[in-house]
Amino acid sequence: MTDSLQTLAGSRPLRRAVVTGGAGFLGSHLCTELRRRGVEVVALDNFLTGNPANVAHLADDPGFRLIHCDVTDYIHVPGDVDLVLHFASPASPVDYLKLPIHTLKVGSIGTNHALGLAKEKGARFLIASTSEVYGDPQVHPQPETYWGHVNPVGPRGVYDEAKRYAEALTMAYRQTHGVDTAIVRIFNTFGPRMRPSDGRAIPTFVRQALAGEPVTVAGDGAQTRSVCYVSDLVRGILALAESGHSGPMNIGNPHELSVLQIARDVIEATGSVSEIRFVGRPVDDPMVRRPDTTLATEVLGWAPEVDWPEGLARTVDWFREAVDVAGARDETGNTVDAGAR
Ligand code: NAD
After folding, report:
1. In what residue span(s) does the NAD-dependent epimerase/dehydratase domain sit (predicted)?
2. Considering the entire predicted model, what is its pTM?
3. Which end of the chain has a smaller Cβ tally under 10 Å, C or N?
4. Residue to substitute in 89, 101, 200, 229 for testing ligand 1 pocket (most ligand atoms within 8 angstroms of CB)
């Protein structure tokens, strides 16, 4: 696998990319890496769950442009575009449970617009799908051939079904309009620039541990997650973009940890005196999560390189430097319930 991304499959040049959700956690890392590889980037974001501060380091870069727009409205990007990376969507359970209709709209109408942009420009299109399309899985680990176990009328259905619809729409554009599409199913990813109160396990635990507050584990913490450091994910996504593969393709770290283990490791990595507090488990919270990454390894030669202790140490360092942990609360002023991930 090459680290340079000057061409797409078929020797098509990659000069200019559009990243929807470019001011979010993953989008900002993708913009940064694309610029490092010399690709011009236009980021589109409405700052609903993202923040221009995430790409502030690119503000003076003439090869980078951040446009404030909502992709559920008409999208217009002047000039050539070679690649559209569609990442706009609330992603944490706290966000999508608070924004259910927007989540469905950005997955449906927003995806339709992003696909329309790729069609208009003759660009390759890659959508950020999710391990949530597998729901609370009955097959473990989850290969791409598994169709999932999703409750469409449960609270998480707004996200899971939006992504499942987005995958179907992507395939329809591929088959009907010949758009060169790819679907990546992202498993839990962590690293710098996660919001300390976004409700996902790792940032919540790190913030709580650094603040010396109880670390809130949902249920008995026996449920598992497989967590991927963000640089590994970005490398896999750009390799998929560069390949001609359509996916769906799982990208995630297959190393599986119980949520209780994650909490204990965070307390140790932060040197915290925090205790663990067990809280209620959210509805439809998946019991297990682990990607089968055989396809990514075979097609892209991809495998994660940053192990959990190293990724955690880098994340803790970033939180210590960048985050006011004592001031980070959700809007209610309460510590966010770290269950819903
Ligand atoms: P994030 O919330 O940090 O980023 C999402 C970005 O999209 C934000 O900047 C937000 O402001 C923007 N956005 C939302 N609605 C928009 C709209 N209508 N128009 C323009 N911008 C809009 O989340 P993230 O973790 O960076 O996730 C990015 C993508 O990756 C999402 O599509 C998510 O479903 C997917 N994903 C992430 C993970 C993960 O572990 N982080 C796992 C699976 C899938």
Report:
1. 18-252
2. 0.94
3. N
4. 89
